[in-house]
Specification:
single chain, about 375 residues, alpha/beta, seven-stranded mixed β-sheet, 11 helices, elongated, binds pyridoxal-5'-phosphate
C-alpha cells in the first residue's frame, strides 16, 4: 500500500501515525513486568497499510510484529522493514526456505509443519514458535499430538522452541469461563511438554481483549491487533484507544430535488420534502458496505447526514438538507471524527451486522492510504 498515493482521488483513508504510536505506548503501559508487545499487522495492518506501521514499530522498539501469510512478511521485507516478523499462518513446505531466507520466525501450527521445520533445522539451526490448541479447535497441536511433537523436537538438535503460544476463542466476553478453561489447558499442555524435555523461554496467549482485561502473566508476550488500531475488542467495554484510520470522501455533485424524487438503484428512497442530495465518489467496490444503504451516516461539517438510497459500486448518495452550509467539494467523513462527532468502526459494524475487524479490513485496495503524522491527542 502506497504512502504517497495519487491524491487526485477525493476518497482516501488517512492513517494517523501519532495515534498508532500513542496506542503502542498505552498498551505497553498495561503490561506487567517483563511482558512485551507483538504488534499484529496481518491483512495489511488491518487495512491500514502494514509497512508504515511496521516502520513505526521499529522506531518504538517493538520486539516483534506478526502477520498471517508468508506473502505479507515478504512485502514488509520488500519495503525495507527489518524488525523480526512472526508468521502466524502455516507456510507451505516448498516455501519454507523463502520464509527463513527473509528472516521470518515461523509459527508452527501442526505436526506436519513441525516435521517440515525439523527437516530444515537439520541443515541450519532455527527457532520456532509452537502453537498449542487450548480450545479454539482451529490451528495448533492438540494434547494427542504432544508426545510425537516432543520426539520430533528432541530428534533435531538445531530445532529450538523459542515460544509456546495459544489463542483465545472468546476473550471479548469477560463472563465466559471458557477463557479460564483455555488457560488451564494451555498450562497442562506446557507442563506435559516440559516433562518430555520441551521448554520454551517465552509464552504468549493474549489478544487485544485479553490484554485489555489484564489476563497477562508477568513475562508473557501479548499479540495485539485491534486495540492498536483504536477499536474496542470487548463485547461491552470502553477500552478503546485512539482510532488510527479516518476514511474521507467529498461532495462531487450536489442537487436540490423536489418532494417525491427517487434516489438510486431500486428507487428505495424517495424525498418527502425539497431535499439537497449530495453524491460521494465511493461505493461498495471501495468496501463501503451495501448494507449501509438507507442505513448509514456520514459526517459533513461535523454533523451526521444519512445515506439515502442504495450504495452503488462507485457512488453513495447522502441527504444534506439539514446541513445548509454543505457545498460542492466539501469533505465528508465516512469513518472517523469530525468536529465533536464520530462515525466509529463499531457503529458501522453494528449497522452491517459484522465486527470492526471486517469493517477495517474491507476498505478496498483502490482507496489510497495517506499516512499523516498528527500531534498529541487533541
Ligand atoms: C489476529 C490475531 C491476533 C490479534 O487479535 P486482536 O483481537 O486483533 O488483538 C492475535 N493472535 C492471533 C493468532 C491472531 O490470528
Amino acid at each position: 500500500m502506497s504512502s504517497a498515493p495519487d491524491t487526485a482521488r477525493l476518497t482516501v483513508a488517512e492513517i494517523d501515525l501519532g495515534a498508532f504510536r500513542r496506542n503502542l505506548r498505552a498498551i505497553g503501559r498495561l503490561l506487567p513486568e517483563g511482558s512485551r508487545l507483538i504488534a499484529v499487522l496481518k491483512a495489511d495492518g488491518y487495512g491500514h497499510g502494514a509497512a508504515a506501521l511496521a516502520r513505526e514499530c521499529e522506531r518504538e522498539e517493538v520486539d516483534l510484529v506478526a502477520v498471517a501469510l508468508l506473502e505479507e512478511a515478504l512485502e514488509l521485507r520488500e519495503a525495507g522493514i527489518s524488525i523480526p516478523i512472526l508468521i502466524l499462518g502455516p507456510v507451505p513446505s516448498e516455501r519454507l526456505a523463502d520464509a527463513l531466507e527473509a528472516g521470518s520466525i515461523l509459527g508452527i501450527v501442526s505436526l506436519e509443519g513441525l516435521r517440515d521445520v525439523a527437516r530444515a533445522a537439520a541443515e541450519r539451526p532455527l527457532a520456532i514458535h509452537l502453537k498449542l490448541d487450548s480450545g479454539m479447535g482451529r490451528m495448533g497441536l492438540i494434547e494427542d499430538d504432544l508426545d510425537e511433537a516432543a520426539r520430533t523436537i528432541a530428534s533435531v538438535p538445531g530445532l529450538r522452541v523459542a515460544a509456546l503460544y495459544t489463542h483465545f476463542a472468546n476473550a471479548s466476553d469477560p463472563d465466559d469461563p471458557f477463557t479460564g478453561e483455555q488457560l488451564a489447558r494451555f498450562d497442562r499442555m506446557v507442563t506435559r511438554l516440559a516433562g518430555q524435555g520441551v521448554e520454551a523461554p517465552l509464552h504468549h496467549a493474549a489478544n487485544s481483549a485479553a490484554t485489555m482485561r489484564r489476563l497477562v502473566r508477568a513475562g508473557d508476550f501479548v499479540r495485539v491487533g485491534l486495540s492498536l488500531y483504536g477499536c474496542e475488542p470487548l463485547d461491552q467495554g470502553s477500552s478503546r484507544l485512539d482510532p488510527v484510520l479516518r476514511w474521507k470522501s467529498g461532495i462531487v455533485r450536489l442537487k436540490t430535488l423536489p418532494p417525491g424524487s427517487a434516489v438510486g438503484y431500486g428507487t428505495t428512497f424517495r424525498t418527502t420534502r425539497t431535499s439537497r442530495i449530495a453524491t460521494l465518489p465511493v461505493g461498495y467496490a471501495d468496501g463501503y458496505n451495501r448494507l449501509l444503504s438507507n442505513n448509514g451516516f456520514v459526517l459533513v461539517h461535523g454533523r451526521r447526514a444519512p445515506v439515502v438510497g442504495r450504495v452503488s459500486m462507485d457512488l453513495v448518495t447522502i441527504d444534506v438538507t439539514d446541513i445548509p452550509e454543505a457545498a460542492f467539494g466539501d469533505e465528508v467523513i465516512l469513518l472517523g471524527r469530525q468536529g465533536g462527532e464520530e462515525i466509529a468502526a463499531e457503529e458501522i459494524a453494528e449497522r452491517t451486522r459484522t465486527i470492526p475487524y471486517e469493517v477495517l479490513t474491507s476498505i478496498g485496495a483502490r482507496v489510497p492510504r495517506l499516512v499523516i503524522e498528527s500531534g498529541p491527542r487533541s
